[in-house]
Write a structure and sequence with these properties.
The complex is a heterodimer of chains A (149) and B (220).
Chain A (H helix, E strand, L loop, with lengths): L4 E5 L3 H12 L3 E6 L4 H6 L12 E4 L5 H6 L7 E4 L4 H13 L5 E5 L3 H9 L3 E3 L1 H14 L8
Parallel strand pairs in A: 1-2, 1-4, 2-3, 4-5, 5-6
Chain B lengths: L1 E5 L3 H12 L3 E6 L2 H11 L3 E3 L5 H6 L7 E4 L4 H13 L5 E5 L6 H6 L5 E2 L1 H12 L5 E7 L4 E7 L20 E8 L2 E3 L12 E6 L4 H7 L5
Parallel strand pairs in B: 1-2, 1-4, 2-3, 4-5, 5-6
Antiparallel strand pairs in B: 7-8, 8-11, 9-10, 9-11
Classes of the chains: A alpha/beta (149), B alpha/beta (220).
Chain lengths: 149, 220
């Protein structure tokens, strides 16, 4: 896999874990979060600081163009919208795609209905709720539903 | 008309009152329990509790038959999403969105959310009109109609100060409509002469703004 510049907005459990994984695979990873404390999550399990491993961290609001640009959106090959707000993720994913023309844009959307609508419109969407519902249903019914989800 | 108003803050509540006075049918949606409770007595079944960015909440409010959706919550992402869904999923013909942070205005434009209303933006415009920082103030901007009205100050260094209107070459699709001088305005004719300190109001196609500025000797 070619090395990418990955920008992850929203550095909670999902964002920070993904960030560490991508960094471990040799990609350049930049994280943007409005909470300065989120930086601590990035260092969990690392021997040194996030920055010492080559990671980038920016404090700022997801919708602020300046913050996105400081975090490197203009040179990003991939963009992940993983804040804790579905609507924020939906809006910034569209900004990344349409304004900054980032090649690969993925949005996390918890609400299955909104996820379905935006997937229909061509957005790449990950809906953890829908995955959880399917897995729970599988474990209850014991049904083997390979190929779905 | 049937209108859905999202956000029961001061803007939303007063809007619903006015719209109902005008004889329209309105449903108000509010996602904060406490705010909902505070207006429920007044609006009864015409206010619904729920997050309007959830599709089923919009459907419950009857979005399929809505003529207009107005999103005036305090959250710009929510206002964008609600209007985008109303327009593109439910084919609501008219939407109006509130912009809370004027810096987010570009995002509304990018995603085709129009028209928008921004109280902060309006106040900034008024300040600009009262105390101009720049030589050009945009007074009215009708984007889809492609018409704007701008105000230009004739400065000390202006090349048109002392010129007759008839001698100024203004580009096509632009028109100097008013001169504001010493607190009063008048409609200029060909013989009117511009003075330093005048404010000129011009109506024009926004595409010709640069040309007009050049014709009047404005650089900034």
């Amino acid at each position: 896999m070619p090395k990418m510049f990955v920008l992850i907005v929203g550095c909670g459990r999902v964002g920070s874990s993904l960030a560490r994984k991508m960094l471990g695979e040799g990609h350049t990873v930049s994280c943007l979060d409005q909470d300065p404390e989120a930086h601590a999550k990035l260092g969990v399990g690392l021997e040194e600081e996030w920055e010492d491993h080559g990671g980038i961290f920016t404090v700022g609001a997801a919708l602020e163009t300046k913050a996105l640009e400081t975090a490197g959106i203009e040179r990003a090959d991939a963009f992940v919208a993983a804040t804790n707000g579905d609507n924020t993720n939906i809006v910034i994913a569209q900004i990344a795609r349409q304004r900054y023309e980032v090649d690969k844009v993925v949005a996390r959307i918890l609400d299955p209905a909104r996820a379905a609508f935006y997937r229909e419109r061509g957005m790449e969407v990950v809906c953890p709720t829908r995955v959880a519902i399917e897995m729970l249903e599988q474990s209850l019914t014991g049904a083997d539903r390979d190929g779905e989800g | 008309m049937y209108l859905i108003v999202v956000g029961a803050g001061k803007v939303g509540v007063n809007l619903v009152r006015e719209l109902e006075d005008q004889g329209h049918e309105v449903t108000l949606i509010e996602s904060s329990r406490s705010l909902y409770m505070s207006v429920e007595q007044e609006f009864e079944h015409r206010v619904q509790y729920g997050d309007a960015s959830e599709l089923w909440v919009l459907e419950r409010a009857g979005i399929e038959r809505a003529d207009m959706v107005i999103a005036v919550t305090g959250d710009d992402e929510d206002n964008i999403l609600i209007c985008q869904v109303a327009k593109e999923k439910y084919s609501v013909e008219r939407i109006i969105a509130r912009v809370n942070n004027p810096r987010n205005r570009a995002h509304f434009d990018l995603l085709g959310i129009s028209p928008v209303v921004s109280a902060t933006g309006l106040i900034l415009k008024l300040i600009e009109h009262e105390v101009p920082h720049h030589k050009l103030v945009r007074l009215l901007d009708l984007e889809s109609e492609k018409i704007e009205i701008i105000e230009l100050r004739v400065g000390e260094d202006s090349p048109v100060a002392g010129s007759r209107i008839a001698d100024i070459q203004t580009p096509d699709r632009t028109l100097l409509i008013t001169i504001l001088r010493d607190g009063t305005g008048f409609v200029p004719d060909a013989e009117s002469v511009l003075k330093v300190g005048d404010d000129i109001l011009a109506v024009l196609d926004p595409d010709h703004e640069e040309e007009l500025k050049a014709a009047l000797g404005f650089d900034g």
